[in-house]
Amino acid sequence: MIGRRSLLGLTFCTCYLASHLTNKYVLSVLKFTYPTLFQGWQTLLGGLLLHVSWKLGWVEINSSLRSNVLAWLPASVLFVGIIYAGSRALSRLAVPVFFILHNVAEVLVCGYQKYVWKEKTSPTKICSFLFLVAAAGCLPFQDAQFDPDGYFWAVIHLFCVGAYKILRKSQKPSVLSVALLVFASHPTGDLFSALDFPFLYFYRFHGSCCASGVLGFFLMLSTVKLRSILAPGQCAAWIFFAKVTTAASSLVLFDVILTRAAVGCFLLGGLGEALLVFSERRSS
Q: How many helices (H) and strands (E) does the chain have?
């Protein structure tokens, strides 16, 4: 059983690393900065693979009433905001910077639970949130590759992530998200601007987009499997390990300028997330 869980965790980490680095390659190196089309393609391909897997009996999909679709709409809009703003931010920011800012969403969720749902918060978790906020607040002033647009979209992304986690239920709004991304591609200018993309007919672009969609699908499956088998604290530990390995790998594969102060912010953010994982493991 322990070997099976370790294999599942390593599979998740591999999919997490490969998916994020592939997305970073397409967005930053190939500079395909048309997130509605890129993420819409990913979601569509993932949906097709999910349907095929369901037909083959590899996964189970619960049917839902049409009346529930309207209940999914707010979460679907937020989900589109997450992937649109996240793609914009990831195309301009280094992967470790993106992760540090992304983690602040947990602070928003905890604040809502504490002051609206009146849930108790452990001192360890409060300490971890202080570290996360401090790291994210200091990082823009220490980032040698500071990009105001990237940080702007990262802030939009983290607010959407926080709101989505609050609204999220058992239903997954992927189908609505595909439709919303398709309709959004015209007013955002992505639909026609993509025709001028210089690598549109290159095999590197086609292969990267296909790989991104397939890896995103396997990341989704491994995430669902991980959460269904392991306790929340153990899941948090594997996610933390996946983020660390992905961030470290990105420093080798992509052009990132590091300063001592920026490294200090990364370590502070890592310490904050490690404390959060420790708090989750104690509570579970």
A: 12, 0
